[in-house]
Amino acid sequence: MALITQRVIPGFGLTMGFSLFYLSILFIIPVAGLLLYTSMMSWEDFWKAVSHPQVVASYQLSFGASLIGATLNLVFGALVAWVLVRYHFPGKKFIDALVDLPFALPTAVAGIALVTLYSSTGWVGKYLQIAGIKVAYTQLGVVVALTYIGLPFVVRTVQPVLEDLESELEEASASLGAGRLTTIRRVVFPALVPALLTGYALAFARAVGEYGSVVFISGNLPYKTEITPLLIVAKAEQYDYQGAAAIGTVMLVTAFLLLLAINGLQWWTQRRGT
């Protein structure tokens, strides 16, 4: 006689159905609509829309700057999380709350603030100008903006893991004769890899679709500092909805493949760890 296992909290069918309904409204139906609208184009029109030199230049800037920004956040976000968890100092609560500022601040306001700081007459930009470094209205400014909006994703994914990682493990490693680098490489880093990859994927995904904070500091120069989301908006404003849909589809597929590769790497590291 087969044993019937009852769940402590029943209702899988109801919750699963509601989850699929919720995802369909927010994600599946809009994406399917975009792909369907793009499929109505001929291959020649589609290729002409997505292979224009201006569009290709925007792809290179958007994905390149997003990868650079996410990589910078991967390193410095982990350091910020480490400092917030492992050390006690005056103003810690204030800095901890400050990390969430990109979440709460409207992206347009963030863009204006970055321009104010990094323009040639800004508080920071005027000193960088002396050193021959120009941030505002350059590709470097795009990287700065995307790094700014992506930092909280890495910090907030790594921070809970560090809080659960007991410091006694590091002390035990040191008592067994391991150096600091060996402890970080053999004890701390393996435990943080899944969280780091998750934060990296979130920061990259956020940066790829960012619009508000970038348009102010980039200068929006075609072939130089024009990002793909801005180009999509420009196409829509010109009533070229098929061109906007084609560019958006390429961006969607490319971003999905990159995120799939990052998630695959995360899955591989988890299996290797177990």
CATH fold descriptor: MetI-like fold
**SSE series:** HHHHHHHHHHHHH
What is the percentage of strand-forming residues? under 5%
Number of helices: 13
Rg over CA atoms: 23 Å
The level-1 CATH class:
Mainly Alpha
User: What structural class results from the helix and strand content?
Assistant: mainly alpha
Anisotropy-based shape: globular
Write up this protein.
- The protein is an all-alpha fold and 274 residues long.
- The protein has one domain: Orthogonal Bundle (MetI-like fold), CATH 1.10.3720.
- Helix content is 78%, strand content 0%.
- Helix 12 runs antiparallel to helix 13.
- The model has no long low-confidence stretch (mean pLDDT 85).
Key phrases:
274 residues; mainly alpha; MetI-like fold; 13 helices
